[in-house]
Input
Amino acid sequence: MEPVAVAEPTVGIAFWILAAIILMSAFMVVSLRNIFHCALFLILCLFAVAGIFVLLNAEFLAAVQVLIYVGAVSILIIFAVMLTSDLASKKILQTNENALVAFFVCLVFAMGALVLVVNTSIWPYATQMLPEDNVAAIGKLMMTDFMLPFEVVSILMLAALIGAIMLAREERA
Output
């Protein structure tokens, strides 16, 4: 599949629009008081990250981003919020007394990141073209060179699933 030939200014404009959406929705995720609305803004943020992957011609990563993070994790969060009645009660106050301190800590980290980005004069570019079939290349790497980490992650996820089932059963009893 040939990459889509797009004029360079169009890619730049699309990138900045997606970056603004990511920053705005990420800010809303951490600042809203309604956890359901936070989950919806998280979905928007993850969709915008998938858009960045598409701009980088990494269609497989964009599809995985949408299927796993948006499709599975976000929907799981929404179901957990909807099924937990205690989160919607007025008894739980979501206040943070350290908001001012957190703002300044975030400001320091943002300024540090900005200084690093501005002072870095040489950004490495890819010296090779992407393979024609990204999915086949990624699949081959996952089943050869990265087989052990792939299996370790699957066992870790299975253990987390079993632990979640055990915690849910203990709460019912």
